[in-house]
Specification:
Helices cover 55% and strands 8% of the residues. It is built from 26 helices and eleven strands. It has a six-stranded mixed β-sheet. A three-stranded antiparallel β-sheet has the order 6-7-8. Strands 1-2 form a two-stranded antiparallel sheet. Helix 3 (32-60) runs parallel beside helix 6 (94-107), helix 14 crosses helix 15 and helix 20 packs antiparallel against helix 21 (427-443). The chain has helices spanning 2-20, 23-26, 32-60, 66-71, 74-82, 94-107, 130-157, 169-192, 204-214, 221-243, 254-259, 261-268, 270-274, 301-326, 332-347, 358-366, 373-389, 398-408, 410-413, 418-425, 427-443, 445-465, 510-521, 585-599, 612-620, 637-647; strands at 89-91, 355-357, 469-474, 481-483, 496-501, 523-529, 534-540, 553-556, 572-576, 604-608, 633-634. By secondary structure, the chain is an alpha/beta fold. InterPro entries: S04_transporter_CS (IPR018045), SLC26A/SulP_dom (IPR011547), SLC26A/SulP_fam (IPR001902), STAS_dom (IPR002645), STAS_dom_sf (IPR036513). The chain crosses the membrane at residues 55-82, 88-105, 140-167, 216-236, 248-268, 305-324, 336-353, 373-393, 400-416, 431-462. One of its GO terms (molecular function) is secondary active sulfate transmembrane transporter activity. One of its GO terms (cellular component) is membrane.
């Protein structure tokens, strides 16, 4: 026994290690001849694409561009060891970067770093200590990233990977489309090269657009022409790559080609001669690790939760698409742990929060990437630039980075096509999409996400309060029962009502269940209670029955005595519990009460299609007590119908 216990313990330890470090499951059996070449080509292609995106998305995060390169290196290396998807490209992503930028600008606005006030002379511009501002924003972004990582780690360790299901696809697509609007508007000032402050909070996208339009007369024409030229070129390259992806051995690296504008910028001295804003100093080498500034964490808790959930949702949705396509599995909880480690450990190396990028992931997959090795090689390309040749990007115009960002939004803007499709298929999901989009555009991404999730939950409640109900009829010569209103072949069993409602029974809809049941069976009880004498009139009508309806009136000398008498042909009601997944104490009491109520007028109620789990719940709730016994439960509707007919046979029975 001791040896067996030790063996079990060692197997559990091995299983836990393999689960925590997925690289141990695939690297030892890595087929070098089959996979290595594809991973090398894919890694180089993805790394080349990751360089300009890292620089550009750092601008969205309101930190100096070099920090985008750090975020494109450390987290990617960590994901190689801890991630379960073979094809997603981890690193900077526009939506997450924008959410981070909104937080750091809110906590460290330009107004905190003014060196000179305008005073009464509005023509004198205010000077900003950009060095102090950027340092403060870096501290905030790093601390926020650390907290995002902690949240994701905790969710993963507590096995909360299922939380992504609450971010339904229409919600995510509406939210990311709204984020694209924010990103696009935020880049207009770089495209036009105008000086406007960055806004955050509700209506920030409106204020940003107004600020750019107000200052449109100061547009730097040189920067605008360069930016528009890059947009047209990049869009054309993207279109060619999409149209001829089957014929092209590798996608055309349009983003790297436009980086050649760095040489043009340097040769023409665009910054000195034409005042075109450039990337500026990119320090060589890696910074020494340092602990984040945890003193600012209390102000960032809510934002970190939103970023953690959105980041995980983007990662797991794309990871599942690739896993389904290539026939492997991804673990949602391990993905949370992997992202948590990427962000938490990465924050000690001055990175900001990351997730997977759709555009880079598609490149990594289409260029032959087979495993996480491709992502690892892409990170080495970034490392080479950071350590050795980062200085060549210093004269890169910011309008070129804005062009790269804008063109990469095309895919997310195409999600607008969801609107006519959802209008045809599901108007409720269309409402979720539109609420997510409008609220996120107007209220900001943080409040917009909360409103979107709240609305999605309301739609779930609405659906539970609006289930479809029906009376079932028998299909002759079969054991099948269908809705009598939809199927002409279905015939009601004489004297038996079979009630079906597509919902579980719990506190929120137990009254709905009972009221709908009574409405379908047309059971109306009118109590006329007098102080000394009680007159009770009961009218029990058959839904489709065409028998004579009569009334009975009984008087009693008792002060509160109710006499009930059934006056129609219905003798049995069968509750089809096939769609009932669970029932709580309130629902059980409601069903028990209606059984007793019908029994008082000699109408017997039976339950059919009850699952084993549901039966256990009913026993736990002491449902079977008093006049309600397990004998009323039948495995199928057909069994219940046969029992009713055998108990009280009728010559016109339709069931054979």
């Amino acid at each position: 026994p001791t040896g067996h216990h030790q063996q079990c313990s060692s197997e559990k330890i091995k299983s836990a290690a393999l689960s925590f470090l997925p690289i141990l499951t695939w690297l030892p059996s890595y087929p070098i001849k089959e996979y290595l070449f594809g991973d090398i080509v894919s890694g180089l292609s993805t790394g080349v694409m990751q360089l300009p995106q890292g620089l550009a998305y750092a601008m969205l995060a309101a930190v100096p561009p070099v920090y985008g390169l750090y975020a494109s290196f450390y987290p990617v290396v960590l994901y190689t060891f801890f991630g379960t998807s073979k094809h997603v490209s981890i690193g900077t992503f526009a939506v997450i970067s924008l959410m981070i930028g909104g937080v750091v600008v809110r906590e460290a606005p330009d107004s905190m770093f003014m060196l000179q006030a305008n005073g009464t002379n509005s023509s004198v511009p205010s000077l900003i200590d950009t060095e102090a501002r950027d340092a403060r924003r870096v501290h905030l972004a790093v601390a926020l990233t650390s907290l995002v990582g902690i949240n994701q780690l905790l969710l993963g360790l507590l096995r909360f990977g299922f939380v992504a299901i609450y971010l339904t696809e229409p919600l995510v697509r509406g939210f990311t489309t709204a984020a694209s609007v924010h990103v696009f508007v935020s880049q207009l000032k770089y495209l036009f090269c105008v000086k406007t402050r960055r806004f955050s909070g509700p209506l920030s996208v409106v204020y940003s657009l107004i600020a750019v339009l107000k200052d449109i007369t100061s547009t730097n024409i040189t920067a605008l022409i360069l930016g528009l030229t890059c947009i047209v070129f990049l869009y054309g390259v993207k279109d060619v790559n999409e149209r001829f992806k089957a014929k092209l051995p590798l996608p055309i690296p349009g983003e790297i080609i436009v980086i050649v504008s760095t040489g043009v910028s340097y040769g023409m001295s665009l910054f000195e001669n034409y005042q075109v804003d450039i990337v500026g100093t990119i320090p060589s080498g890696l910074l020494l690790p340092a602990a984040p500034d945890f003193s600012v964490l209390p102000n960032l808790v809510t934002d970190s939760i939103a970023i953690a959930i959105v980041g995980f949702s983007m990662d797991i949705s794309l990871a599942k698409i690739f896993a389904l396509k290539y026939g492997y599995s991804v673990d949602g909880n391990q993905e949370l742990i992997a992202l948590g480690l990427c962000n938490f450990i990465g924050s000690f190396f001055h990175t900001f929060a990351v997730t997977c990028s759709m555009s880079r992931s598609l490149v990594q997959e289409s260029t032959g990437g087979k495993t996480q090795i491709a992502g690892f090689l892409a990170s080495l390309v970034v490392l080479l630039v950071v350590v050795a040749i980062g200085f060549i990007f210093q004269p890169l115009p910011q309008t070129v980075l804005a062009a790269i960002i804008m063109v990469n939004l095309v895919g997310m803007f195409k999600q607008m096509r969801d609107i006519p499709l959802l209008w045809k298929t599901s108007k409720l999901e269309l409402a979720i999409w539109l609420v997510a989009f409008v609220s996120s555009v107007l209220l900001g991404l943080d409040y917009g996400l909360l409103v979107s999730i709240g609305f999605a939950i309301v739609t779930v409640i609405y659906r539970t309060q609006s289930p479809k109900s029906m009376i079932l009829g028998h299909i002759p010569n079969t054991g099948m029962y269908c809705d009598v209103d939809e199927y002409q072949e279905s015939i009601e069993c004489t004297g038996i009502k079979i009630f079906h409602l597509n919902a579980s029974i719990y506190f929120a809809n137990s009254d709905l269940y009972i009221n709908t049941l009574k409405q379908k069976v047309r059971y109306d009880v009118l109590y006329l209670t007098l102080k000394k004498h009680t007159v009770v009139r009961l009218v029990l009508l058959d839904v489709q029955g065409n028998g004579q309806v009569t009334e009975s009136q009984t008087e009693s000398d008792s002060e509160e005595t109710h006499f009930l008498r059934t006056l129609c042909a219905v003798h049995s009601i069968i509750l089809d519990f096939t769609p009932v997944n669970f029932i709580d104490s309130v629902g059980a009491k409601a069903i028990k009460s209606v059984i007793k109520e019908y029994a008082a007028v000699d109408v017997h109620v039976f339950i059919a299609g009850c699952s084993r789990t549901l039966l256990d719940e009913l026993r736990t709730l002491l449902f079977f007590s008093g006049p309600v016994t397990p004998d009323i439960v039948f495995p199928t509707v057909h069994d219940a119908v046969l029992h009713c007919q055998h108990r009280r046979p009728r010559p016109s029975s339709t069931v054979v």
